[in-house]
Amino acid sequence: xxxxxxxxxxxxxxxxxxxxxxxxxxxxxxxxxxxxxxxxxxxxxxxxxxxxxxxxxxxxxxxxxxxxxxxxxxxxxxxxxxxxxxxxxxxxxxxxxxxxxxxxxxxxxxxxxxxxxxxxxxxxxxxxxxxxxxxxxxxxxxxxxxxxxxxxxxxxxxxxxxxxxxxxxxxxxxxxxxxxxxxxxxxxxxxxxxxxxxxxxxxxxxxxx
Length: 209
Fold this sequence. Notes:
Layout: H1 2-14, E1 27-31, H2 38-54, E2 58-61, H3 68-78, E3 86-88, H4 98-105, E4 110-113, H5 134-146, E5 153-155, H6 175-186, H7 191-206
Parallel strand pairs: 1-2, 2-3, 3-4, 4-5
């Protein structure tokens, strides 16, 4: 039940996960598909209930549909979540229309562009998606900054395979610092705004209330 799931999540944050004393610092990444299944709705409600008790950060993996992020936020809100402490991940493969993106941004979650370094012709999970380039991601960040959302942007690499590591020819974990941040400055995002995106916003999100 949602109540049992809530107890599990709270226990893993307060006491430790999987029989250890290692406590979780964030709830997530909570995965959803599209359409969102009833099981996934239950997990989202449990996440909201646990967050309401703990004041902790949450991160959501939305389904691969432009409507998925907003639907996840709606479910979380109805269950009492703090959307201001919630990250919506993978927006760079989910919402492509700038108007739709700005409408979603109004809901108040952190906006995560986390596929930096991932550039491909065919996105196997959804062949209809044209995966943006890193340059296009930065252009979108510049739009969000211009529209006043510099306090709500976070970025990442989503490195999850060996070929993404420098040892195997990939960009590695330094890609954002070495390549993306300088390009952001070239595209009109100030150093102060870059520092917000790389330092202040993650710090604020990850801090328990």
